Amino acid sequence: MDTDPRYLPVESPDTPGRQQFTDAAAAVAHLQALYTQATGFLLDRFTKALEGDRPVARYRAYYPELRLTVTTHPAVDSRLSFGHVVAPGSYSATVTRPDLFANYLREQIGLLIRNHRVPVTVGVSDTPMPVHFAVAAQSDLAVPQEGVLDFSLRDVFDVPDLNTMNDDIVNGVAGPMPDGSLHLAAFTAQRIDYSLARLQHYTATAAEHFQNFVLFTNYQFYVDEFEAFARRVLGNPDLGYDSFVAPGNQVITDADTPLATLAKLPQMPAYHLKRANGQGITLVNIGVGPSNAKTATDHIAVLRPHAWLMVGHCAGLRNSQRLGDFVLAHAYLREDHVLDADLPVWIPLPTLSEVQVALQEAVAEVTRLEGYELKRIMRTGTVATIDNRNWELRDTPIHRLSLARAVALDMESATIAANGFRFRVPYGTLLCVSDKPLHGELKLPGMATDFYRTQVASHLLIGIRAMEKLREMPLERIHSRKLRSFNETAFL
User: pLDDT tens digits, residue range 441-454?
Assistant: First the structure.
């Protein structure tokens, strides 16, 4: 470029002024119009630049914004953990992908209008929209890396900014916005866009397919059984499931359509048994380790699921346990370390009664055991999560496990629970004992084959049934006040 980029004029789309709404659907429709205008503008200018048109301006569009102003101390139902602000003031949130979050936004905005009896204001924010996210939302084009084009991308378009792409809000360290407004939602628009892009990369499925109830596992056996279950229920329309999505965004709507095997699976493949309004179940095979567990939950959290559960394998730590027994976590010993900077280990992770009851009832239904008989196959207690796969070779962790009265050990559950607590997503853990290394039953080749064949199907079915029970609950019951602080955002 011949023109010094410092002196390029800034070109932005013409946008209407702020508008007030007392109808949530109308507010969301206006958010969608503003978002479409902004992304369309950036995509048009970006496409022309790729085609060789030399940029003559700096092209900038802004995220839409939602605002709420409350002038009196609210007198709201104290049983509610969301849907209201805690004190008078001005509150704001930048918004992205209102098409993807339409149901969520209508629900949350509707609660604000109803609980405070004031309108919400929709307009354009002061936060520039990075061209990467605008292009990803509107097309299959890829933004080239710096140096590919004959001009610097950063001279002409806005790029992702870490100042608005962090977890300061959910970590409780964010101050007010520059204009003095407080935060209305847990994530900024840029932070959400970042995670939506990461989800596609790690799971090979688009964010649109993720459902509100998420199961995490650490073995391929569960994926195979989940697909088999999906094919069975797709054959019965009365059950309400309408499609199944596999990596590569492959969609089937009947029991017999084959799915192609990808030449290379993503790091954490996701599978989605879909239902109207996102009320189905997603299964993510996160593999082994707390780092993967954190990565997956960091990004799925922006979709604001109603619950996530870990249904994987664990080491049984008690001699009285048998291979195939279940462990329902009532507490967690966090030796995973990946979240220590965001959520110190001295912070307790509360047990969520709604999730615990759903899991225990699901175990009873699937195994046909109740009361005292259920204790034959299920233990409750502390689950330890560690970041050392060869923990058995060191004495110190074993002593700590004994002090904590742990009954099982894995490498993911406490991480998922801790991030559930941090992100205000209801969480739970039901593990299946696959080995007992402290008692001479190591996980060696061939030893667990029969166990896998017989136990995976029932274990997965328990997780699915628990999710169906949670789905039947009203939102105000699922989203417990235990997960909300005394200075909380209004949005879930």
Answer: 666 565 556 666 67
* 89: its two tokens: 């003031």
Q: Where are the alpha helices (DSSP H) in 163-280?
A: 189-203, 220-234
User: Could you tell me the pLDDT band of residue 79, with boundaries at 50, 70 and 90?
Assistant: confident
Cα dihedral 357, 360, 365, 367 in deg (nearest 10)? 180
Amino acid of residue 34 = L
The terminus-to-terminus CA distance of the chain in angstroms comes to 46
The β-bridge partners of 383 are: 332, 408
Continuous H helices in 368-441? 371-374, 395-403, 413-423
Using only the alpha carbons of the chain, give its radius of gyration. 24
Q: What is the rounded CA–CA span in Å between residue 132 and residue 153?
A: 10
Separation of alpha carbons 157 and 155, rounded Å: 6
- Report yes or no: 192 and 249 within 8 Å, Cβ to Cβ: no
Determine phi and psi for 341, rounding to 5 degrees.
-75, -25
Q: Which residues of 68-107 are buried (b: 16+ CB within 10 A; e: fewer)?
A: bbbeeeeeeeeeebbbbbbeeebbbbbbbbbebbeebbbb
Looking at domain 204-482, does it have CATH number 3.40.50.1580? yes
pLDDT tops 50 at residue 102: yes
Instruction: Give the Cβ contact number of residue 267 at 10 Å.
Output: 14
pTM to 2 decimal places:
0.93
Q: How far apart are CA 214 and CA 5, in angstroms?
A: 46
Among left, alpha and beta (phi > 0; psi -120 to 50; other), residue 41 is alpha
Strand (E) positions, 417-464? 427-435
| Three-state SS at 409 | strand
pLDDT at 452: 62
In the chain, where the domains are located: 5-198, 204-482
What is the chain's length? 492
Of the candidates 65, 83, 69, 70, which has an alpha carbon nearest to the alpha carbon of residue 122?
65
Distance of alpha carbon 233 from the chain centroid: 25
CATH number belonging to the domain at 5-198, selected among 3.30.1730.10, 3.30.70.360, 3.40.50.150, 3.90.1150.10: 3.30.1730.10
Percent of the chain residues topping a pLDDT of 70: 92
Q: Quick check: 101 pLDDT over 50? A: yes
The arithmetic mean of pLDDT across residues 123-145, rounded, is: 83
Task: State how far the Cα of 414 lies from the Cα of 421, in Å rounded to an integer.
Answer: 10
Backbone phi and psi for residue 260, each to the nearest 5 degrees, phi listed first: -75, 145
Alpha-helical segments (H) within 258-289: none
